[in-house]
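Chain A, query sequence.
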Amino acid sequence: MGYTEWPNRLSCALARFIDQNEMNEILDGCDRLPEMNEKDKAQWVTQAIAKLDRHVPEQQDRIEIMTECSCRCWTDIIDELKAEYKRTGDIDELINIMHGRVFINRPQRQDNIVYITKVPRFPEEHARAVTREEKKYYYCHCDYARAANGNLSSTYCLCGAGWCKTIWEQILGRPIQVDVLESVLLGGEVCKFAVYL
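Chain A, predicted structure.
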């Protein structure tokens, strides 16, 4: 996620929950993000999310904020997926269509929960990686957080959950809940999400 919209989305989302002074504290230095190297971006994000956690104590509020920051991938095929789901009303058929297009790993469904496991961002490098740090680095999809050194709040990975949430909500046309089950930034082997339909 190396795009410049992320700080703007974070700012807009924060404005719904905290005052301008608190926002300024959290966002301090974000104007320099485009010029920062990966390590400095990760350090900035780590500090910003720690401040967010202090100023926004309610978990549900943090979920809403971070969900709004997520990537907006696959917008070009959302209408097609939405039309297909409207035509069939079949979640399993929708998953079949999404597999290989939206999700590289086939989502696994158990009743009303769909489990999404991401693949490594850099699969070849990840396969050759030896250390846990290297594996984490090559797995993570986020340009801002990939180089984080273990101090990153779990709040940050709600952004990844927001990516799943946005896709499913646009297709289904209703709110859903997504939980982070595992994250490489938080010590896991993979990034895995539970989508509650």
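Residues 75-196 form one domain. The chain has two domains: 5-69, 75-196.
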